Amino acid sequence: MKTVKLGKTGIVVSELCIGTSLFGRQRLHLPEDRASAIIGSALDAGVNFIDTAKHHQTYTVIQHALKKVQKDIVIMSRSSGEDYEQMEKDLYDGLRALKRDAVDIFLMHGVTNEDDIASRAWAWRAIRDFKEAGAIKAAGVSTWTVPGLEATLMSTDIADIEVVFVPFNRIGFGLHEGSLDEASDALAKLDDNGIGIIATSVLGAGFITGPMEEAIDFVRNKPYIDAMRLNLRSLEHLQAALHILNDESIPDELRQAIDAEARRLWVFAWCTACGECVGVCPEKALSIGGWWSGKTAKVDDAKCTLCGECGPICPVSCLHVF
Ligand code: SF4
Ligand code: SF4
Question: The CATH number of 265-321 is which of 3.90.800.10, 3.40.50.10800, 3.40.50.1970, 3.30.70.20?
Fold first, then answer.
């Protein structure tokens, strides 16, 4: 597994970062032994980089997977905290749950634009204080908007921002308020400033059709991207990703096993019930409902053909195919 130095942080990570968000309650809620087996297999194959966040609820799974691991593992986490207290609480909770004195990379999650960065100055201050105290090794931001990337570039705190985490894939899934070209320009400039860039949503949340190699190579060939987080739902998916990143062909039987896996469209918890997806579905498989637990989009699996029309238009990227 190729390793890279993450910008000016000096932290060396594997090109593949194992995402854990799929394993948690908000998404697939995999049994703990299955989720930790995926993480463990990745670490055995040379991966040293794991992504998590408090809201993913995967600290326990990671702890379980790391029990027998001897080598140093780089852990990245983040918080949507708006103020000092919330950021501090999320940081402490993470350190306690992961039984660590320090987190390797910690991000201010979901920066949307310049005003957002300004309004969360105290939250950023908490990250800086923890870094000065040695409890964070590298600090950064995550964003899913082009104005968020541009604001990061213009921020007076740029000297302190060392890592950016952003959705990047060939269909632009998950990237909002700007084009892929605009995002590329901003990322190239951030890279010039020594910022480590980690791409997520590389497989377009399941909406990218065609060989997995094409989706991964699209991101891998961007010189400004250092590493990619992949959310892999099964050991077979992990094996396929490892083959690609080790420049090997995917064996036919493995490809067939992946193709045979049952897939469906998921609506995740942060659906705002805006209804935008309902009108684009050619099969009339989507509706808004669920009065008992708050309204969300509902999928009629019997009608859904996984055509992919709805996912990219969702303003909060809560439709995924797994
Ligand atoms: S477009 Fe997204 S947020 Fe809006 S109803 Fe559909 S799934 Fe929910
Ligand atoms: S994937 Fe296609 S068929 Fe399925 S709900 Fe979305 S638009 Fe409709």
Answer: 3.30.70.20
